[in-house]
Design goal:
The chain is of the alpha/beta class. It is built from 24 helices and nine strands. The strands form three sheets. The protein has a five-stranded mixed β-sheet, with helices on both faces.
Length: about 550
């Protein structure tokens, strides 16, 4: 008997056979991942509309919880670029308190998904939707960084995509050429650095080098027009005190769509990251445990002023590539970030905003998946429609609308595809038994008794094919004595399909026509038994194959003659 609660943190398993060699590997990986996470956490925090230390706090507390409770051996949790758009929008509309409420609600949703063992279901989100909103987010992040990259003087940047570019165009004359130069230099360093060093991330090299250059320019060359983090934010280099979050039904109703988006996005990104990691290390994560851990992280982090947490694939891969194989590496990464915040936090005020813009532009390029996007445009039209709709809705409106409409489109197009593959046909006189699959017989053609007709349903019998079934029934000319509904190729049936059968049974009884079911599988039979349909039609009229059904039909036609 398996446990109902599918919660098995990988840390507990890892510590059973832990060794000094494993600890040294995890220690090295954790230190490197912590260093990699530093510039990203700061950049994601600022781009999301909060102060830089909030990004670090999210990576510290969220990353620790994800590694401590998670279902993946190597997953690294923290803030990611995917959340920038949704977080920024929530703060603009509902403030920091609204973001905290939405994040906690999302965390509760994630825990519920894990408790209900729905971790595997998330993986079935259509790929065009994932690529569509990921590419849309990438373009949106790129757009948000234009002000800092060019050093534009703009008091208020509009929230929507089109208005942003209009505003940028109106203020193009305020370009700060020094800021642009610093931003382009940062991008250049990030692009070139992998050729010289694989271990140290390009973003960290860019921040250190460019910050030193700007420090010299400001203090020794008199160039003071380059904006830094300290010009815009006051850095609090300590862990904040926990604060209570107040809920009421009005804010819950307002923030429910945003919370749903955070939960779905977090679940998708985390489980995709864990799945990719599985393929590299040859291990298997527990998706339900991972969702519960992500949920707990998102419930706790807002209490300390943090932003949404999810699995970060770039940091997870960095962990793997540097030898991390247990959740201890993730715990060490969180401790390293905590030490940096406490002892080096004040130094972050010297980082130029244009440099962070360069870091995020590279992040957006890596997120864009433009090659995948281009290849998906060659797929069937239904996939292309979902891809483009999700992409443009993400860019022009927001991620909440994009995911909801994308999922609806994908479901409707899937149902249409299933409906098109389900066939309902009428057979008179002779039944073709070649490649039958129900039961082996030597004959390939089976002659039907007089006034017996066979209706073949090939595919799922659900609400999507109800009209098709009704249409075939209405097209029948002469009334038969027996109707055999052949269901050998019906894998499942919903309440609408059952309703169709009940309507057909009533119609047949009113016209004194016997109805027989043939080839009903065990799942469909259970649906019939639970609804009581087997008693209405008579259990003797639910046959396991076409031969039994025809024998039953012959017996009935003989009774009619007598």
């Amino acid at each position: 008997m398996t446990s109902k609660l599918d919660f098995h943190p990988k840390l507990l398993t890892a510590l059973k056979n832990y060794s000094r060699e494993k600890f040294m590997a995890d220690l090295m990986a954790g230190i490197i991942v912590g260093i990699v996470a530093l510039p990203l956490a700061i950049a994601f925090g600022i781009a999301s509309g909060v102060s830089p230390e909030k990004g670090l706090i999210t990576a510290i507390i969220g990353g620790f919880i994800v590694s401590f409770l998670g279902g993946s051996s190597v997953q690294i949790g923290g803030p990611t670029g995917a959340f920038i758009v949704i977080v920024y929008g929530i703060i603009q509309n509902f403030g920091i308190e609204g973001l905290a409420i939405a994040t906690v609600m999302a965390g509760i949703m994630l825990v519920i998904l894990g408790l209900l063992r729905l971790g595997t279901v998330i993986k079935f989100i259509p790929y065009p939707i994932v690529v569509g909103f990921t590419s849309g987010i990438a373009l949106t992040i790129f757009t948000t960084q234009m002000k800092d990259l060019f050093g534009l003087t703009i008091e208020h940047v509009p929230a929507d995509f089109i208005s942003k570019w209009i505003t940028y165009g109106q203020h193009i004359s305020t370009i700060n050429w020094w800021s642009l130069l610093i931003g382009l230099l940062s991008i250049g360093i990030i692009v070139v650095s992998p050729k010289f060093s694989k271990k140290i991330p390009g973003s960290l090299i860019a921040i250190i080098v460019v910050t030193l250059i700007v420090f010299v320019m400001k203090n020794y060359l008199g160039i003071t027009t380059i904006e830094t983090i300290g010009d815009r934010f006051t850095i609090n280099a300590s862990l904040p005190e926990p604060e209570a979050i107040s809920f009421n039904m009005e804010t819950i109703n307002l923030l429910l769509p945003s919370a749903f988006t955070i939960a779905m996005l977090g679940a998708i990104e985390s489980l995709l990251s864990a799945t990719v990691a599985d393929g590299v290390i040859g291990n298997k994560h527990n998706s339900n445990t991972e969702l519960i851990a992500q949920g707990v992280a998102n419930i706790v982090v807002p209490i300390f002023g943090g932003i949404p947490v999810t699995g970060a694939i770039a940091r997870t891969m960095t962990n793997i590539n540097n030898g991390g194989r247990t959740p201890v590496a993730g715990l060490i990464h969180a401790v390293v970030l905590l030490l940096i915040l406490l002892f080096l936090g004040p130094l972050t005020k010297h980082i130029p905003m244009a440099c962070l813009a360069g870091v995020l532009i590279i992040v957006s390029y890596n997120m864009s998946e433009w090659r995948t996007f281009r290849s998906l445009l060659k797929n069937p039209k239904s996939d292309v429609y979902v891809l483009l709709a999700t992409f443009f809705l993400t860019v022009i409106f927001d991620l909440t609308i994009a995911i909801e409409i994308g999922l609806l489109m994908a479901m409707f197009l899937f149902m249409r595809r299933v409906t098109e593959t389900t066939r309902v046909s009428v057979v008179r006189d002779v039944v073709d038994l070649s490649n039958d699959g129900e039961i082996q017989h030597e004959e390939e053609m089976l002659k039907l008794p007089a006034r017996v007709e066979v209706y073949e349903i090939d595919g799922p019998f659900f609400f999507g094919v109800a009209n098709k079934f009704d249409g075939v029934m209405k097209s029948i000319g002469d009334k038969p004595k027996v109707r055999i509904i052949r269901m050998r190729k019906v894998p499942f049936m919903d309440s609408t399909g059952l309703h169709n059968l009940e309507s057909l049974l009533r119609l047949s009884e009113a016209e004194n026509i016997r109805m027989i079911l043939s080839g009903v599988n065990s799942e469909v039979r259970q649906v019939l038994i639970k609804s009581g349909f087997d008693q209405k039609i008579g259990t003797e009229n639910i046959c396991s194959n076409i031969h039994e059904a025809i024998t039953r039909a012959e017996a009935f036609t003989e009774e009619c003659k007598n």
